[in-house]
Design goal:
Distance between the termini: 37 Å
Structural class: mainly alpha
Bound molecules: ascorbic acid
Helix content: over 70%
Strand content: under 5%
Number of strands: 0
Shape: globular
C-alpha cells in the first residue's frame, strides 16, 4: 500500500542523511592504503583514550600505566604514515590536499610526531602538570591535521 511505500521512502532518505552526516560512509571509496591507514589510526586509540582518561581525571593517574601507554603510542602513531600513498581504488577520508600540498602535510606530520615525543618525555618524567599540557598539544595536533587534510566528519 502507499503507506508502506511512504514508510520505506522515508526510511531510505533517513539512512542516506545519516550516512552523509557521519561522513566517510559507505559512499566513500576505500582502497587498500586507506584501509591500512584506518586500521593503524584505530590501533592508536586505546592508548590515547587511556591517557586521556587519566589526564582528565576520569581515572586515577597511574604513573607506570601512563608511561607504558605513552611509549606504545609514540610507536603506534608512526604507523599510519607508512600508508599515505594515493590509491586508485579510493582515498577514503583523506582529502586531495594530502597530495596536492605534500610539504604542508609533511610539516603537519612532523609537528604531530614532535608533540607525541614531548608527551612521551613528559610521561616518563611522571610530572602530571607537564603531561596535561603535552597531551593537550598532541590532541591539538591531531585536530589541526584533521581540519585540513581529512574529510569533515
Ligand atoms: C581523539 C581523536 C582525535 C583527537 C582529537 C583531539 O581522541 O580521535 O582525532 O583525539 O579529537 O582534538
Amino acid at each position: 500500500t502507499s503507506n508502506i511505500k511512504t514508510t520505506l521512502t522515508i526510511g531510505a532518505i533517513a539512512a542516506t542523511l545519516m550516512l552523509a552526516a557521519c561522513g566517510g560512509g559507505a559512499d566513500v571509496a576505500k582502497g587498500p592504503n586507506s584501509e591500512a591507514r584506518t586500521t593503524a589510526f584505530k590501533a592508536m586509540m586505546p592508548n590515547f583514550s587511556s591517557m586521556g582518561k587519566m589526564v582528565k581525571g576520569e581515572e586515577p593517574y597511574e604513573v607506570e600505566k601512563f608511561k607504558t601507554a605513552a611509549a606504545a603510542f609514540a610507536e603506534e602513531s608512526k604507523k599510519p604514515f607508512e600508508h599515505f600513498q594515493q590509491d586508485a581504488e579510493g582515498n577514503g577520508d583523506a582529502l586531495p590536499a594530502v597530495w596536492e600540498r605534500p610539504d604542508d602535510f609533511k610539516a603537519a606530520e612532523d609537528k604531530f610526531h614532535a608533540a607525541v615525543a614531548v608527551l612521551n618525555t613528559a610521561a616518563q618524567s611522571g610530572n602530571l602538570e607537564e603531561i596535561k599540557v603535552a597531551y593537550g598539544d598532541a590532541g591539538a595536533s591531531c585536530k589541526a591535521c584533521h581540519d585540513t587534510f581529512r574529510r569533515p566528519k
